[in-house]
Amino acid sequence: MISSVHTPMRVLGKVLAPIVVALALAPGFSTPALADAGGSITGKVTAAPAKYLGETVVYLKNAPGGGGGTVTVDQKAMQFIPHVVAVTVGDTVNYGNHDTVSHNVFSPDNEGYNLGTFPPGESRPYKFTKANVGYSELCSMHPEMLGYVFVGPNPYHVVVDGGGNFTIRNVPPGTYNVAVWNPKLKAGDQSVTVASGAPTSVNFSIGR
Ligand SMILES: [Cu+2]
Q1: How far is the CA of 138 from the centre of ligand 1 (A)?
Q2: pTM of the entire predicted model
Q3: How far is the centre of ligand 1, averaged over its atoms, from the C-alpha of 78 (Å)?
């Protein structure tokens, strides 16, 4: 009786294993879906002046993979939410409006864009096609509104938390240039080597 149970399972396992390997190697297979595929890069950013710390993105300059997805930035309570978003080149940001008034969305940075003015409940998309650049997001009707989009060259980017801490997960083993983007502050890149399954630590101090 036992062997009659085990035999089909073993056969199933032999069939499934090559399929799993093939999926993992297939071009375009999403790296973040492979929870144990790589290591992580973790650390802390300190900023002077500290008030700009929360507008910091940490990203990898030379990692594989591109975008093509859609990221949502909402306009609610007269703010861009999230205040800072990191996307991958090729991604589209869909700007929503969940206020009771119309908003405009434009950026004077890089190639510049202006999505016009649109009422509550509507949204407007913009596709980002330049990598390694940041954009301020503004509303011509409400001068106090300000947000930022950073466009990374690959999916390995993260906005720091309120304490400046960050973790970039599922990084394939290899050596990378880790860079920091901030609309007002800078720091030099740092090279780190990531091993599978292990965290690698790197810290940054950013300033004018
Ligand atoms: Cu507005």
Answers
A1: 8
A2: 0.82
A3: 6
